[in-house]
Amino acid sequence: MLKKSWLLLLSYWILSGAAMGVQQEVIDILVSGNQRIEEEAIRVNLKTKIGEPFSSSQIRDDIKNIYKSGWFSDVQVDLEEKPEGVIVTFIVTELPLVRAVKISGNKKLDEKDLRELVEIKPRSVLDRKSLQESCRKIKSMYADKGFYLAEVDYSLKPSERGEVTVELKIKENQEVQVKRINFIGNKAFSAEELRSIMDTKQSSYLSWFTSRGVFKEETLESDITKVTGHYYNNGYIQFKISPPLISLSPDKKWIYIAFKLEEGEQFYVGRIELEGDLIFGEEKILRGLRTKEGDVFSRARISEDIFVLTDRYANLGYASANISPMTRIDEQKKRVDLTFEIEKGKLVYFDRIKIVGNTKTRDKVIRRELRVKEGQLFSGSGLRRSRQRVYATGFFEEVNMSTEPSEKENMLDAKVEVKEGHTGTLSAGFGYSSVDRFVGMIQTSLGNFFGLGQRVSLTAEFGKTRQNYNFSFYEPYFLDSSWSFGLDLFKSERTYTDFTRSSDGGSIRWGYRVAEYTRVFLSYRYEDIEISDIPKPQEGITSSLTGSLTRDSRDHPFDPSRGSVNSFSVEYAGGFLQGNYDFTKFSLSSRWYFPVVWGTVLMFHGRSGYGLADRELPFSERYFLGGINSVRGYQYWSLGPRDNILLSEGLPTSSTQSVAVGGNKMVVMNLEFLFPIIKEAGLKGLLFLDGGNAYRESESFFESPLRASWGFGFRWFTPIAPFRFEWGFPFKKPGEDIESSIFEFSIGTFF
């Protein structure tokens, strides 16, 4: 309410002309009471002017305008009558400045997050509307976190300097839990099935730990959409759902939710027809659709078919193809006839390809991974594959592909937007393993050397049973060609249960891309190997060539969710290559990844090896299984053929010892189920089943049964390297004396 002094009211009556019949002139306008606000800033709000007739309506407008400026808590007007006219004085009371903003009572939410919602800031003019809006926003944030009954208010504490301290007072109260979710009118689906679709869950005895059952209004709104979609995707196209009935328990601890449903009848797909621009044969198009005549009508399946059709046209250059599904409902037969109307539009070409966000990586490193080119016909699958390939380099945290209009007709610009990750690391650490005991590690790596896409790393590992030093260099596009080049230098010593293996040497490898997912490799290995701590120590040089063929269609090199890696290799040693050992080894490996639900992934890995030699495969090249990289739950390299070795030959009390001698053939199978734990931190959990064994020359594959195990573990994908922590539990044979479980960890690639 606008305040006016008694003098103003009296003056209005005297000067209005009602009593005197004379209209006075404004001879002066004065402003008083302002301390911080300049007088001119007040005068710009006035309609009343010097020299113009006095108007009470203009005075009222002036008071309103001064209030609207937001700087004053009170505005009064004093009128002084003179013989020559009226002197108008505006008397203002300024709003105080905010000295500080305090927040109290918050325990569940961080003060930093709350301050981002506060619109009023220190040294600003006090604005009660902004204060009220800040309180509303804070209360809304609490509601989103499940504190549906949170209360937010404010108080003002004046200071001697005319400033105020604002205190936002929060009373969090307790989280409101959903006690029960009921459905009225559901016949096609049980209440339990409908609840499973929803993100809102009923409270359980673990709610204190998992936050299950917390009530959130926004989540409930999306749940209505999910339930509706579930019915629409199961043929109930006339389904209706009323707004939920929400009731609060007297103690304000529990919420009860009820939905009233009208399911209607279930409908099926009738005739399916195509109209418009059919660049494929009608029979071919219909064969590629998921929706079939006689199926239960599903809105989601139709959406998938629209995407498939749009993508097929886009891959031929029709980027603006429009697919419209038209439906005709037959109430009597409970069928929906479906017609896909197709407008292919014009052919579209790529104009420019823009790359943004790369501050370290050179453009060519990204461009060589793209499967779209400037001037090429538009291709939706080409854009998706390009994103996959750029992301698979491992250099970027995010990769986004998009298109935008070009200045040229019927052309689009492609935009590659990347966010670079940490590709260079210097790390040191230690860990503990049941096999190696304490293990230290120092590693420096440059995953994107000078922004050229080259990988350089130097690693040193040292422990009671392991010493390993490795230098590695890899160029994926040697001299900007389709050839790749790699170099490794290494020196290692590893003590196993029955022997110690020492080696030093290096390898050179070349690769060539023969198809989109397929490469061939040729590598040369030179390794000086010594086997000790056995009755007959061995030492010699392996000089070998390995040829391999690999097809890799994974969507990510370190954390894949779909695709596969399949490889076959042959290694030949000795002969014209010299060296001390002559042998040929064949290897076959296959890994498949399948996305399941909620970010979970199922992985199957199978591999086998077979070695041939004139006499027998050298000890250093034989197959030994067990440990984190083959069959978990068993000691490292403890599985496979064993022989009894005479320890004290020629003595009266000769004794023997069972020693692992390895096999010339092996097979391993691993089944893993991975699930996210903390997605943002790259932490995943897994369950696994392993099986495998190695066989001697006189045995055939599977002549001895596979040794198997099960277990669980964690995978942590860090910028430094992927970490593995796994517990394996072997399936024991009756009377077998082995450990009941083994914990292992490793740093680096998986399998």
Explain what the structure shows.
The chain has about 750 residues and is an alpha+beta fold. The chain folds into 6 domains: about 90 residues, membrane protein fhac (Ubiquitin-like (UB roll)), CATH 3.10.20; about 70 residues, Ubiquitin-like (UB roll) (Roll), CATH 3.10.20.310; about 90 residues, Roll (Ubiquitin-like (UB roll)); about 70 residues, membrane protein fhac (Ubiquitin-like (UB roll)); about 70 residues, membrane protein fhac (Ubiquitin-like (UB roll), Roll); about 325 residues, membrane protein fhac: a member of the omp85/tpsb transporter family (Porin, Beta Barrel), CATH 2.40.160.50. It has a 16-stranded antiparallel β-sheet, with no helix packed on it. Strands 7, 8, 9 and 10 form a 4-stranded mixed β-sheet that branches. The radius of gyration is 39 Å and the shape is elongated. The two termini are about 75 Å apart.
Task: Supply database-style keywords.
Ubiquitin-like (UB roll), disordered N terminus, 751 residues, 34 strands, elongated
Q: Can you lay out the helices and strands and say which pair or pack?
A:
Blueprint: H1 6-15, E1 26-32, H2 39-43, H3 56-68, E2 72-82, E3 85-94, E4 98-104, H4 111-115, H5 128-144, E5 151-158, E6 164-171, E7 177-184, H6 191-197, H7 207-210, H8 217-232, E8 240-241, E9 245-248, E10 254-262, E11 268-276, H9 282-287, H10 299-314, E12 322-330, E13 335-343, E14 349-356, H11 363-367, H12 380-392, E15 396-405, E16 411-420, E17 424-433, E18 437-449, E19 454-463, E20 466-475, E21 483-495, E22 500-513, E23 518-532, E24 538-552, E25 563-573, E26 583-595, E27 601-612, E28 642-646, E29 656-660, E30 665-678, E31 683-695, E32 707-717, E33 722-730, E34 742-747
Parallel strand pairs: 1-3, 4-6, 7-10, 11-13, 14-16
Antiparallel strand pairs: 2-3, 5-6, 8-10, 9-10, 12-13, 15-16, 17-18, 18-19, 19-20, 20-21, 21-22, 22-23, 23-24, 24-25, 25-26, 26-27, 27-30, 28-29, 30-31, 31-32, 32-33, 33-34
